[in-house]
């Protein structure tokens, strides 16, 4: 029900196609983007509850020294093969039909949070990048120092952004060309034979004191004549997975977040646990499942190795097919997956 003095608008990039019939654009309430139709604002009381409550897995987490394995080198940069290479957290190098992309580049420590594992090469060695895809504006996905490094080494780089994220990019690198999109919109900066769509996620935005949900969040579909690759971004479980499958059909490769899910009272609406990620993957009728958003930064209460252990247990049970857990820097060749 509409509240008194509530202003509702629907926003999109009017220059781009909307591929979902009857989708008016992303709903905003008093200038804040919503998840589907409902406004989600994380409550400070839940954050305080988290910070003042003993983690029931405290000892287990302390004893868990899991760090993702890493393959050092730059061969994947020099290669011409189509591939997916995990670089830690939600950062992937993706090469499709010769077009090279990076998702949510974060190469360095975060404010007050150190990386638990580095990159397979120096950030300055990441060259030949054509596009950078940003799922949302949180600092562990849109990092100013990483943007500067990437653009310095790739002066022809272009960015694909959610609605209202342009100012964040400009504050980091004022000269990088970019295009913003709302949900169910197709970017038009890609070469012939490759389509990239911005699609829903269930999340939220905040970087400062006064910008709650002022920037959109979402996921990406990279589509060719022979393949569909889905990058889920940061998301909780919501009805958008069913909507995406109904519109696009099965996903050949799913890059799915599986970490930062405990405590559930705080994280459930914005992050997937491994069971939820597999459920979403099955809804998407996924082929290969590649996990992300675990092991690189300590952001939550679960032990570092728990997401991987749970995924392996789920795969053994037969609930999912196609689990692939690459090391950081390990190329996953797309021709071997299709």
TrEMBL record:
One of its GO terms (molecular function) is zinc ion binding. GO terms for cellular component: cytoplasm. It holds the Pfam family Lactamase_B_2. Residues 103-294 form the Metallo-beta-lactamase domain. It comes from the Bacteria. InterPro entries: Metallo-B-lactamas, NAPE-PLD, RibonucZ/Hydroxyglut_hydro. This is L-ascorbate metabolism protein UlaG, beta-lactamase superfamily.
